[in-house]
Amino acid sequence: MCSAAMVSARKSRPTPMRFLYRLILPTAVAAYSNVSRQGYLTRQYTRSHHVSTYANKKLPLPSSGVFVAYNQYQVQTVLPHRAINTSLKSTDTKDEVGAETLSTADIEHMKLAARIAGIGKGNTYPNPAVGCVLVRHQTEDEIIGSGFHPRAGMPHAEIFALLEACGHVKDGVESARSAMDDITTATSNEHQQVLDLLDIYKSEDGASKLFKDCLIDSDITAYVTLEPCCHVGQTPPCALSLVAAGIKRVVVGFRDPNPRVDGGGLKALQDSGVDVLVLSSAAHKNTDSSGEEIAAANECANLVEHFVKRISPREEPIGNLDELINGKKRRALRAFAGRQKTDGTIHEVFWPRDFSISDKDKKDSDFGERVNLDVKFLERVDNMLWDHEIILLRLNNVVHKKKGAKLLSERIANELNAHVAQVLGHTALLYRPGFNPVLDLDELASKDDGNE
Description:
Blueprint: H1 3-12, H2 16-47, E1 77-78, E2 83-84, E3 88-89, E4 96-98, E5 102-103, H3 104-120, E6 131-137, E7 141-148, H4 157-165, H5 172-178, H6 189-202, H7 206-211, E8 220-224, H8 238-245, E9 249-252, H9 264-271, E10 275-278, H10 291-303, H11 305-311, H12 321-324, H13 327-343, E11 347-350, H14 359-363, H15 367-370, H16 375-388, E12 390-394, H17 402-416, E13 419-424, E14 427-431, H18 441-451
């Protein structure tokens, strides 16, 4: 074979690296394209529902001196359709909240609020995920503001929706997104704007400074997935902010069972002359609600399923698990978990990878006492405990020593009122009875005794 032919043969011969490029690269590009397309469609869908009340008006600078932004999104309209004949009652009381009927447009707006609430779901521990949509009723329904609760300590969904509707931010949802990370210093102009507005909102009479009568001349309904709060926490009451803005009608997806609220938000709105309606769920007895309303109500209920368990009193308080679980019961839990491991049915939660944590910190036995407890991780663990009662934590992404795993797992257990049944290497076994307990520790312990 001539030298030219040999060179040609070598070039055409597939090398292992060239084979990998040919096999993997097209698959990776196709997968990335699909994910990007889905993300683009999601963003476009969400953004298409945002319009500003004042999109075509020149806004005066508010007396508070905050920056005024304009929303240039195309108006999304929803035509009101036939009314749904329904009895509108609170989810847990026989007293009628409103005699008005809901339209299919009302239901669709509430479903949109529920989808927007889902953006923050998993990031709000210990608070619930909530969404809000503000709609101005004219010949056609016009969505003028929307928002969700991004994390504990930040404004609630209603406030981000009001900030957009009153012209303080361009997009309530995007402003809420900018506040999802637990960062006290601004990471963008939008984030800085949200922090500045939050300072005004938290100040004395802050709701009036931002929202006073800004929507009073319009026929507007607020669709909120959870009853607006009426108590002063880290932020002022949302119910009073809606009243201050001049909202005339509020549709609520789920009544808040939090003892600090529990109908108080509804009453505060009603006492201020606001028409209040609460969706009826499938759990409602003797209801003539439509299937559409029930589906929307259940969407709202699912958003706060684990939050409701967190704040609702148990029929039998569990007390201090560390004091109640003795060695015999602890051995029974370990044996039960061991059988689940063998069967491949044990539920695991991994500490997420965090490249800001150095290998030196991971090898430090005391780092488990110092590392920040991520709210996303806590919410995942809390939800899994409610659903399965016993779970395995894998902490190798944050600690490499058993002492570090023990310290960290005890902090997590104390936060969630759970019990550390075992620590092996960088794994920890956590137990907490469900709201309606499934595991009977006494029975498990007696069975294990009988097997010894």
